[in-house]
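Posting this for the archive.
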Amino acid sequence: MIQMIGAIISLLGAFFLFLGALGVLRMPDVYNRMQAGTKATTLGSMLTLLGIGIAMPSWLMKLIILILFILFTNPISSHALARAAHFAGIKLTEKSVSDALAEDKEKENE
């Protein structure tokens, strides 16, 4: 029974990983792709590892450490990459409503 719960949680994680990959393919610009990939893969990886940990209780503590590592590093690295892309001059899609980083930069220059 415990292994079945672990398998279901891992399958749910794999579904989120699939959605992240689909988001990377379908989003219009690098910033949206990065957001879709990061959010979905963070949750997907965490759920997959948690499911494995539930199915294999002897691995659970090691997998919790990996989950915490993913929880802290994925969003931080995505943020750093997005800022680097913005400062490199990669444009947002025409459908974007606002560019808060550029607006903040304009306020500093005034």
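The chain has one domain: 2-109. The chain has a mean pLDDT of 89.
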